[in-house]
Amino acid sequence: MTVYTTIQYPQDIYTATIKNTSGSIIGVFDSFSTITISRTFNDVGTCIIEVDQSHPILDDLSLDYRIEVLSDITNVLFSGKTFIGVYRGNNITFGSDGRKLYTLYFTDLFSVLQRQIVAYTSDTANRSTWTSTLTTSIMSDIIRYNCVNGQDSGRETAILQDILTVTISPTPSVNSIDFNCAWRNAYDVIKELLKTESSHRITFLQNGTKYDTLIAASPSIYAIRDLTERFVFDFDEGNSYNVNVDRTDTNRTTGVLVGDSNSGSARNTVYRTNSDHSGVNAFESFIDAFNTDVTSELNAIGDAEVNNNLIIKKEQFTPIFRTSLIPFRDITEGDLVTTIFSGTKETKRVKTIIMDVSGKERVFTMLLEEE
Question: CA-CA distance, 175 to 156, in Å (whole number)?
Answer without folding.
Answer: 33
